[in-house]
Specification:
Elements: H1 3-6, H2 9-18, E1 19-27, E2 30-37, E3 41-44, E4 47-49, E5 53-57, E6 66-71, E7 74-76, E8 81-84, E9 87-96, H3 100-135, H4 140-144, E10 154-167, E11 171-188, E12 191-208, E13 211-228, E14 232-250, E15 257-275, E16 277-278, E17 283-296, E18 299-302, E19 308-311, E20 314-329, E21 332-343, E22 347-354, E23 357-364, E24 367-381, E25 384-394, E26 399-412
Antiparallel strand pairs: 1-2, 1-9, 2-5, 3-4, 5-6, 7-8, 8-9, 10-11, 10-26, 11-12, 12-13, 13-14, 14-15, 15-17, 16-17, 17-20, 18-19, 19-22, 20-21, 21-24, 22-23, 24-25, 25-26
């Protein structure tokens, strides 16, 4: 006898919501069903109970089609026999909930959903790491201003920058950084050489796609610049440091929150060449080319749900070609700047493991974009200079800057 098929559809649906097993029993009062519900669950608006419940066909509850005749008073007398208020009921059929195959399928579906959610978090982590590496790039004007008229042997400088923008995938970010350095100037017949040390700290907060997080980087650097008497210059800088990232995300499908943090060492190098061509009435144009290479090491870390993340190392190679068009005035200069940039490599691969599942996320950051803005360099006192630049990007697909402001000050002595 299939007791479930004898039940009205509404009763069957109600019991299915709460039972872990349904046992069919027979006794003097006919055929009945014993349901094992979850605690404190309402079968429907007609009955509620805390433990076992015994249902028999009847008319006392016509809407449900079953009558609750007893709850929580069973005596197990062995061999599938129950005693209820003196009545003996013998098990004739048991309907178990999900089968082992169904349970395994449900577990696989849950693991797959977890893996998909973790993959989204990892993709965002890849973007943030790449972003932190890129904003560490800077040309000589952003870093130290215009040094052509500097005649002192030594100098210290400090600059701060900030801005906001968007990353591919719908994430917004806000960034803030500070960089400082010390250098010495060595005069030559054909120009001067400036060599020094620098330190950079940068921080970014980001949100979007159900995720929030922050990242920061700290870099130590060495740099050298040659400024020729005929208007040309060469600038080189190498920075090495560590980047870290924390991210928390809530998945729309699983409604679970995932978090993780990771750190990686990185190398950033840049070589820049430019030539200032003097025009009439103090105007000038300064073509520039720059090549920037960075390398981020890989890292292995674990998400809050136990997923193992193996992030591989990645490389970036950004080329820049542009110009400054400006005018020299009594105590400084102001200029317009415009450059075309291209990311030639920009790839990262990350492997993920969650229980028995494995996945791979590959990110491609190759892109072409423009950067343009305005800037100035002004001598506030003998051997002291204030410099600033305001820029933004256009045509970028992977990482765009709505605005970035750079403000610095140099003391020479």
């Amino acid at each position: 006898m299939d007791m479930l098929n004898m039940m009205p559809e509404r009763a069957k649906s109600s019991l299915a919501k709460v039972m872990t097993a349904l046992t069919v029993v027979a006794g003097a009062q006919g055929v009945a069903a014993v349901a094992m519900p979850e605690p404190e669950v309402n079968v429907d608006e007609h009955a509620s109970f805390d433990g076992y419940a015994l249902f028999v066909p009847g008319v006392a509850n016509a809407a449900l089609g079953w009558t609750t005749i007893q709850t929580n008073t069973y005596t197990d007398i062995g061999s599938g026999v129950l005693s209820v208020n003196g009545q003996t009921w013998t098990t004739i059929q048991t309907e178990i909930g999900p089968t082992e195959e169904e349970i395994r399928a449900a577990e696989q579906a849950e693991m797959k959903a977890e893996m998909e959610a973790v993959t989204k978090v990892v993709c965002n982590t890849q973007r943030v790491f790449f972003f932190l590496s890129r904003i560490a790039n800077n040309d000589i004007h952003k870093r130290m201003g215009d040094l052509r008229d500097n005649t002192a042997e030594e100098g210290v400088w400090l600059r701060s920058y900030g801005g906001d923008g968007d990353m591919e995938g719908g994430m917004d970010y806000k960034m803030l950084g500070i960089q400082g350095g010390y250098d010495r100037t060595y005069e030559r017949n054909d120009g001067k050489v400036i060599a020094g040390l620098s330190y950079l700290h940068t921080k970014a907060d980001f949100s979007g796609m159900g995720a929030d997080g922050s990242g920061n980087g700290n870099f130590l650097g060495v740099y050298g610049s040659f400024i020729g008497n005929k208007g040309h210059y060469i600038d080189a800088i190498m920075k090495y440091g560590r980047m870290s990232n924390e991210i928390t995300a809530t998945d729309d499908n699983t409604r679970k929150t995932y978090s993780g943090d990771t750190s990686s060492n990185g190398l950033n190098t840049s070589l820049e060449y430019g030539y200032r061509q003097q025009l009439k009435s103090g105007y000038y144009i300064e073509p520039q080319v720059e090549l920037n290479y960075s390398r981020m090491d890989g890292d292995t870390f674990y998400m809050s749900n136990g997923s193992r993340i193996d992030m591989q190392g990645s490389d970036s190679l950004v080329g820049r070609a542009g110009f400054n068009f400006g005018r020299k005035v009594d105590k400084g200069n102001f200029y317009l700047t415009c450059s075309l940039l291209r990311e030639f490599i920009g790839e990262n691969t990350t492997y993920m493991t969650y229980k028995t599942l494995h996945d791979k996320a590959t990110a491609d950051f190759k892109d072409t974009w423009m950067e343009y803005g305005i800037g100035f360099n002004f001598q506030t006192a003998p051997q002291q200079n204030l410099y600033a630049e305001l820029t933004r990007t256009a045509l970028a697909d992977k990482l765009s800057e709505n605005w970035r402001v750079n403000l610095g000050y140099r003391w020479s002595f």
